[in-house]
Please model this.
Amino acid sequence: MSSRRGRGPGLSAFQNHSSLASSYAMHGNALKATNMEALKTQLSVFQALAHNFALTHAEKIKQDPALRSEFHRLCTSIGVDPAAADNAALSKKGTVGGGFFSMMAGRDDKEFVARVALRVVQVCRASREENGGLLGLEECRQRVAKGKGVGGAMDVASDDVLRAVESLKPLGGGFSIIIVGSKKMIRSIPKELSTDQSTVLEAIQIQGFVTVSMLEDNLNWENARAETVIEDLLSASLVWVDAKASEKEYWSPAFMHDDN
Model:
């Protein structure tokens, strides 16, 4: 007598499961392709809108630094680089071609960034003796905007200065943006700041100045360590010393001009 018990799923059940899984995968791929196509269409629409906006407001974009910065961010976020002259990566029919932005925004923008970069170099070199090659971004922007002589002023946003510094990197010379505490600084010297030097500059940004005893008490540094980093900062002209106080106080000219 056969004692057959309830059987588990047979081969046909596994085949049905495999077929169902394959069907789900195909459906998922179809949805993914549809969504990707929709995203491409939306991106094309955004690019076209940016194109029309640039045509309508070209002069305002060139003259208003805040609008220019926002427009540049928008272009970058949707894959249009206004500074990339002769870039035809988006020149397919129905999309915004690189040629237009090269003509309207690209070349003008590159020339503008180049002018700002030249002024940034001049400002940084002129102030290097007083700040050791470490200049606050906002102070640099103000000096660049002010210019020299009659008619030398120009409307410049912080983003313009950031892009100008970025454009200088391939040329060498040590130009870069660093962050000390909460403040963006332009470094115009090739030498990197050590961790201890950055810590002291950040403390100066917060406290206004530091003393050797403050570093010893608050950072638990040995006297030799505190004295060494202070001497290094002094030799690089990154801090100034007030010897008239009861204990020598060390100030950074980089943090004396603005609070940004």
Notes: The first strand starts at residue 134 and ends at 136. The chain has nine helices and five strands. Residues 11-56 form the longest helix (46 residues).
